[in-house]
Amino acid sequence: MHCIISLVYLTCYIASYCLELMFLCRRLGVELGKVQVYQEANRETQVQIEESVRSKDVFIIQTVSKDVNTTIMELLIMVYACRTSCARNIIGVIPYFPYSKQCKMRKRGSIVSKLLASMMCKAGLTHLITMDLHQKEIQGFFNIPVDNLRASPFLLQYIQEEIPDYRNAVIVAKSPASAKRAQSFAERLRLGIAVIHGEAQDAESDLVDGRHSPPTVKNIGAIHPSLEIPLLIPKEKPPITVVGDVGGRIAIIVDDIIDDVDSFLAAAETLKERGAYKIFVMATHGILSSDAPRLIEESAIDEVVVTNTIPHEIQKLQCPKIKTVDISMILSEAIRRIHNGESMSYLFRNIGMDD
């Protein structure tokens, strides 16, 4: 769905049905306007703005659908259309930043999130509002201001209000890489923490920097013995262990993205074996690709809680265990503050770097 919110000095282009659009409009005191976004027979994207945006602040709100590449092109073309229509400021509101997992070098790959950031800036974006970037260092890929909002206050509120006896819970990091996030949640809820160590690591932690090319055949006459490069001992995966007591407790696994659920299912099985009697998964971005809903429904996980940064209504129909937390309130407040030139620090109060 593509529409425009328009006011005298405010115009917002919205491409989202997962966010509560009418609720967002009521909070901002604006009405939905008009824009046409469609594809030609050859799959080329066309954007036609049907209101004047000259000298106005334009907020383009875009969530990521299953066809992520088409979504990106719609966003870039819409930004460029506003730029060529003489908009004063063009602010992108992208709750889930696509390709954020590809923010490190892997073998002979590329840092795609850096490429996407450059494309957005080149198209004419002047400000970015997003939420829970996979790596906070992605902000450095942009040469424009970036506000990286946090969903942790909403998830913490859900734990306190919707999980009975949450005082008997323990916050779990499914890998040592997410231990800081788990610690931040645990400190705010005054709960203990547990870390699962030894599960199979993904490509993000192995071979990430491209320096694993095999050496050339050694020529004894060409290389001095003192210049020989020492070889490292190959990694060996230790057996899975849980650091922390989860016996007779509610286990709450926290992470930023839940897409391929295999690691979450393995963590849930491990926690069940260690005596946890209920298992919750809390994540900001519920991508839930492929057959993830079916796997969750058949697993030991009792509930998966995600925010509505990404459309997942179909997944919820397939799996009643998936619950949604609405974060449109903080997005509408961020839009209002930027448009009025107010400080954004209120939205980051009591927010730590590890959230």
UniProtKB/TrEMBL annotation:
InterPro entries: Pribosyltran_N, PRTase-like, PRTase_dom, Rib-P_diPkinase. It comes from the Eukaryota. GO terms for biological process: 5-phosphoribose 1-diphosphate biosynthetic process; purine nucleotide biosynthetic process. Pfam families: Pribosyl_synth (PF14572), Pribosyltran_N (PF13793). GO terms for molecular function: ATP binding; magnesium ion binding; ribose phosphate diphosphokinase activity. The keyword Phosphoprotein applies. GO terms for cellular component: cytoplasm; ribose phosphate diphosphokinase complex. Keywords: Acetylation, Nucleotide biosynthesis, Phosphoprotein. Residues 25-124 form the Ribose-phosphate pyrophosphokinase N-terminal domain. Belongs to the ribose-phosphate pyrophosphokinase family. NCBIfam families: ribP_PPkin. Binds to PRPS1 and PRPS2. Seems to play a negative regulatory role in 5-phosphoribose 1-diphosphate synthesis. PANTHER family: PHOSPHORIBOSYL PYROPHOSPHATE SYNTHASE-ASSOCIATED PROTEIN 2, RIBOSE-PHOSPHATE DIPHOSPHOKINASE FAMILY MEMBER. This is Phosphoribosyl pyrophosphate synthase-associated protein 2. It comes from Sinocyclocheilus rhinocerous. The lineage of its organism: Eukaryota, Metazoa, Chordata, Craniata, Vertebrata.
